[in-house]
């Protein structure tokens, strides 16, 4: 019971908390406790905590809550550097979002472009993608649009912003609406993320979990 209060204190709906319990997630981790209320408030969020500290649900739970209040088009785009991570993230969205029939779709290389385009044109709620394959879609025939997304998540932001993905990230940013809530999650704080910290103010929240470093 006490554990249930913990998640509910963060402003999450009961059905989401129930879903968390159903997958064995009972008590929020520090990055979840700190970032979830800020994301629900609408803040841009930069969160850092070591691998395994629950960063996926730190962004997935508030996104799912907002989506359940306003389902329309592709709602969130989550970028991540590897296909394996993409599938793991999409799984967590699907598991928690089951009661609202949340549809997440993974866009990574090594899969049929035409079929991917067809699935994207059906407007999944959440698209989880590696940058390269998403750009392939944006640069070929557009059967879908990212112009209505509400959330952009950079998972493993340190790796995505390391320079390796620069061209792709730029192409993707150009396809996104200016008005959106961006969330950056990372295991380490690199120089690029340090630059982002400079922006911290009324609309930008920064959290770094230092307990385990
Ligand atoms: P990170 O992205 O920080 O490396 P993940 O989000 O992949 O970590 O989470 C690692 C594992 O911990 C996942 O299996 C996830 O389901 C689980 N997990 C996340 N939050 C909690 C929580 N509050 N309580 C228990 N397990 C959790
Ligand atoms: Mg992660």
UniProtKB/TrEMBL annotation:
Domain Helicase ATP-binding: 36-207
Motif mapping: Q motif: 5-33
Domain DEAD-box RNA helicase Q: 5-33
Family to which the UniProt record says this protein belongs: Belongs to the DEAD box helicase family.
The protein's name: RNA helicase
Parent sequence residues shown: 1 to 213 of 449
